[in-house]
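Worked example 3 (structure in, sequence out).
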């Protein structure tokens, strides 16, 4: 079976041409897929019925199969997908009051980076996702939102996996989010744990996509203990790459800071971070730690975070705290781990609960 969601516009034209159809049929099919975003071939009623039947017989709309879904009291939806080879991945949809609809998607099954507080890191690496598997996670949310008269507006690569450890597939998928789903580059964020060569490469892509870097600690010894990748690319090299990125692209970098009670929320730590980032075009997103099974840390309290933000301001570094989403269904940052569950075992909570 041919996965239509894995085909470029050009591939689709070639396929219909090989089947003996004129180019306008390929254009119609493309519109059904990406402008109208229908979920079945039957719905494509401007196509001749024999073409619809052939599509039905030889093609599929994507290869992800939904294994489970959970809804949070705050409107966040978390999905577990089974891939063709049985691997499991998760993606999350977060609606915001201002009409933003943000999909948080995975780039790998598991992750090889081993950050100690991250549920995905705790499970280890299974395999890379193909660009089609990455793209389809966003496509499926976009399709369902469309059916409700809504629009997928933002995509963040902050689900399972390290996007820059799967660089080519991620970049290909990101380009398709822009061209096929019409999501503006500024509404896409790639988050990396700090792979320096890929940050440098990304600076040359000429994309307006937001780059987020997971920092979490402002000195090497302690950062290495939390994020083992820091031993390979310590802070000085990372910050050099960040400065070069800003110089080359003129774009602001987002730094992610998982605020952990008593670990990285002290005034001293804030001064260290302020000194490290002083003068760099950047913003710090503070995310209170989402507790995971394999790590004993707790989230910082609001007062410590406010004090931290105030100290950063003294260095001219802007920072905001991010509201945690989907906590009741473990859909928050770093909580995705694709457990094997049966649909009827999943406790589903509706927003009304
Ligand atoms: N691998 C990439 C993107 C996926 S993780 C990266 O590490 O940047 C997305 C974000 O969630 C990262 O900033 C990561 O550090 C953060 N994160 C991981 N586990 C977390 C946890 N338990 N609580 C809060 N944030 C967490
Ligand atoms: Fe991988 Fe990011 Fe989790 Fe680290 S925080 S283990 S890089 S997914």
């Amino acid at each position: 079976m041919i996965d239509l969601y894995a085909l470029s516009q050009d591939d689709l034209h070639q396929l219909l041409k090989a089947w003996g159809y004129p180019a306008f049929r390929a254009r119609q099919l493309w519109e059904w897929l990406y402008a109208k975003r229908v979920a079945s071939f039957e719905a494509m009623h401007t196509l001749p019925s024999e073409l619809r039947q052939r599509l039905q017989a030889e093609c599929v709309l994507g290869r992800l199969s939904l294994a489970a879904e959970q809804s949070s009291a705050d409107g966040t939806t978390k999905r577990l997908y089974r891939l063709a080879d049985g691997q499991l991945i998760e993606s999350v949809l977060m609606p915001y009051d201002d009409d933003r609809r943000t999909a948080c998607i995975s780039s790998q099954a598991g992750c090889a980076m081993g950050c100690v507080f991250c549920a995905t890191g705790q499970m280890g690496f299974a395999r890379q996702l193909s660009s089609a598997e990455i793209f389809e996670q966003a496509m499926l949310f976009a399709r369902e939102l469309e059916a409700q008269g809504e629009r997928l507006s933002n995509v963040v690569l902050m689900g399972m996996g390290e996007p820059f450890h799967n660089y080519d597939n991620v970049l290909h998928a990101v380009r398709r989010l822009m061209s096929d789903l019409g999501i503006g580059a500024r509404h896409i964020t790639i988050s990396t744990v700090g792979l320096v060569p890929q940050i440098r490469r990304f600076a040359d892509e000429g994309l307006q996509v937001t780059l987020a870097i997971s920092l979490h600690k402002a000195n090497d010894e302690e950062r290495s203990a939390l994020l083992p990748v820091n031993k390979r690319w310590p802070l000085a090299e990372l910050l050099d790459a960040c400065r070069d990125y800003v110089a080359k692209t003129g774009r602001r970098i987002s730094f992610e800071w998982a605020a952990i009670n008593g670990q990285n929320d002290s005034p001293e730590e804030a001064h260290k971070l302020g000194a490290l980032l002083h003068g760099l075009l950047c913003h710090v997103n503070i995310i209170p730690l989402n507790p995971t099974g394999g790590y004993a840390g707790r989230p910082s309290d609001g007062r410590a975070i406010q004090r931290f933000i105030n100290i950063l301001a003294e260095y001219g570094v802007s920072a905001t705290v991010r509201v945690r989403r989907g906590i009741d269904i473990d859909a928050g940052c770093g909580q995705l781990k694709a457990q094997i569950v049966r649909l009827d075992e999943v406790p589903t909570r509706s927003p009304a609960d």
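Notes: The chain has two domains: 2-60, 65-345. Residues 117-118, 158, 162, 191-193, 214, 256, 258, 287, 289-290, 292, 333-334 surround S-adenosyl-L-homocysteine (ligand 1) (CB under 6 Å).
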